[in-house]
User: Fold this.
Amino acid sequence: MNNIVKFGYVMIIFLSLFFVVADAYAEMATPFEVKTRPFVFIKDINVKKDFWKMVVKVRDKWTVVKDGREHSEMVIVDAKGTDAQVVIPTAYKAETDKMIEENTTYTLSNFLVLTNDLFFKPSDNKYKLIWTGGTTTVDPNVHDIPDNDLKFKPFAEIVVGKWRSDLLYHVIGYVHEIGYCQVNQGVSKKLQVNLTLKDISDISLNCTLWEDYAAKFIKFNNDNKESGPVILMLKYGKIMEEACFLFYIFLLYCYI
Assistant:
């Protein structure tokens, strides 16, 4: 009989504790269920975690061919004007090509953050973002991010060596002279245009356009009937120093 009484007391205490805990959980559950992850800015991301959520605009997007395989890369920018490079591996390229467009804003979530050790960096951000199977982009053009002016690299800074060999730059100038052109493409020959740009300070910069960009310039030059100067804007150009202190731009984007 005593054992039955003791068991009854134990059950009463257990049930009392159970309902106290249940009530406390019920009060806490609703806030947790409706709580959403806060937005962060690009400057806030780091390698300590992968669960981020940001509002960004796709500034530029392009295809990279390496070892016969294609993957995508893009530069995103947030409302504060901070940018970062995003690498989309081959496995996700076809899918993202259908849903991601340039000059469009998105809510970007869940991506891998790594130190940016790429040889060619279109962004000087110390981190790069890697698209994964859990990465999502939603809310196209729901958010408003204004366009930011491009930051062109002054020719004067280039000729005195104020540039990084691993960073890609934007430059703009007028075509002063057209040099050697490889206009016939073959097995061992790539389309090539060498030209000299000048800026408003009359500083010269030697540039080389390859393949699609060379073809685009050749067509424009052949079709152009106007006598005025030709303004050339190069985006994401690679600066290289030659033995005679000439500087060449190899680029990803070309606008005439």
